[in-house]
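Researcher: Here's the sequence for the chain we discussed earlier.
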Amino acid sequence: MKKDFYEVLGVNKAASQADIKSAYRKMALEFHPDKNKSADAEEKFKEINEAYEVLSDIQKRQAYDQFGHTAFEGGRSGPFGGNTYTQQQGPFTFTYTNGQGGNPFGGGGFDFDGFSNPFDIFEQFFGGPFARTARLPTYKINLTFEEAVNGCQKEVNIDGKNKTIKIPAGVDNGQKIRFQDFILYIDVEESQLFKRDGADIYLTKTISFSLAALGGQISIPTPDGSNISLKIKPGTQSETLIRVRGKGVPVINSRSKGDLYIKIAVSVPTRLSLNQKKLIKELEL
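Model: Thanks. This is the structure I predict for it:
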């Protein structure tokens, strides 16, 4: 029986994507067969990589959290003699089949060839009546960065009818949400302030030379529109990265959130008065 992926990496289920990446790097270095000559190092290294492959991917992690290992190992027999898999994405559940034996793709199975949504590959490969029933109209919706992170309600026009739909918090650019009679493609505008990496948010905050030297408090904006107070320690250097837990992007179908990372940039004055120059020279002593 396979070990729990979180246990393999030594993290808990609330771990951020950055925590998972850090744990993976540490354990991969420890158990790499080229460095670790113990008898079980190679097997352990494979376990670590398998766990990281799932937990480092937001959608795969969501499926694993909901269904465990069965999300990737298959379940009941599908229409082509293969295994049927169920996975959650956004506010809907979809099912897809890994065909085997006499399936229309030939051979003993197939992968999705880069498609993030099985409906994409259904539409490309299946023909005839099946294609007409499986194929749903796809529409694109534009969201601001804040709308994607925090979730929102939108009014859309589908076939001449206005519908109010709910966009779950945490959707990302390029994702697709399948509703009952249509598929919605998510297009997220870039933020001038924030950068997103999975569930984590990054921003750069410029502070004065004196604040970096002496320390103090600064106000930091967050993706939900609020501000938090952040303490700057005396002697803070440029490029310092400060982590604020739980202020990142909500993980869909989970109560957990990513983290907010603030990179400090120290502004060095270019024009100084004679008195300021004198003070800095005294500081050098």
